[in-house]
Amino acid sequence: MKDLKKKADECISQLRAIGINCGNVRFTVNSRAKKRWGQCKVISGDTCEISISDRLLADSADELALKNTIIHELLHAADKCLSGHRGRWLAMAGTVMKAYPQYDIKRCTSAEEKGFSETYVPTKKLEYSYFFRCLGCGTEAKYKKATKFTRNPLAYVCVKCRGKFIPSADYDRLSPSQRRELNERLKNKF
């Protein structure tokens, strides 16, 4: 496994040599990331924490891919994560690539570009289980998990029209006139 601290120190030295100061930076190894190679977060006023995917630290991983990611995240730290991938960050990335042509600093990089052959398999998204409709305007409210709202939707009103919510299946069975009538009765009752 590659030494993250050693590689990070090399990258910081290269950036300092061209006038880019990254400030106070801590590095961590991320063993859970599946889609992300690195991440920079401001954890206090002048301190940033950079996490690097453990996949890039494997002995078989390309060293240049690791350094590209470290420098990418160090540029975020130098900007205190303010510009995203535009403005100052983009200008600094251009400066780095001009001074060090071996680097290719981009907004995002595929697994193939990093030297990995596997393709990303998306995780299954949690499906919605609860559907409600406003009797007044028809706005739909969808929930993935049981909440106070799903247990007692009549206790809540629509922010658009102040109408009452009922399960979508019941809403579909009612005619527009029945919906208006039921909404008025429920408003007066609750």
Strand content: 15-25%
Largest beta sheet: strand ordering:
1-3-2
Question: Termini distance?
Answer: 64 Å
Order of helices and strands: HEEEHHHEEHEHH
Number of helices: 7
Q: Could you say which overall geometry the principal axes of the C-alpha atoms support?
A: elongated
Sheet of most strands: 3 strands, mixed
Mean pLDDT: 91
Structural class: alpha+beta
Q: Tell me the radius of gyration.
A: 26 Å
**Unreliable segments of 5+ consecutive residues:** none
Summarize it.
The protein is an alpha+beta fold. Helices cover 37% and strands 17% of the residues.
Describe the SSE topology.
Layout (H helix, E strand, L loop, with lengths): L3 H14 L6 E7 L7 E7 L2 E7 H4 L5 H16 L8 H13 L30 E5 L5 E4 L4 H4 L13 E3 H6 L2 H14 L1
Q: Your description of this structure?
A:
By secondary structure, the chain is an alpha+beta fold. Helices cover 37% and strands 17% of the residues. It is built from seven helices and six strands; from the N terminus they run H-E-E-E-H-H-H-E-E-H-E-H-H. It has helices at 4-17, 54-57, 63-78, 87-99, 148-151, 168-173, 176-189; strands spanning 24-30, 38-44, 47-53, 130-134, 140-143, 165-167. The strands form two sheets. The chain has a three-stranded mixed sheet with strand order 1-3-2. Strands 5-4-6 form a three-stranded antiparallel sheet. Helix 1 (4-17) packs across helix 3. The longest helix has 16 residues, at 63-78. The protein is elongated. The model has no long low-confidence stretch (mean pLDDT 91).
Provide tags for this entry.
190 residues; alpha+beta; 3-stranded mixed β-sheet; 3-stranded antiparallel β-sheet; 6 strands; 37% helix; 17% strand
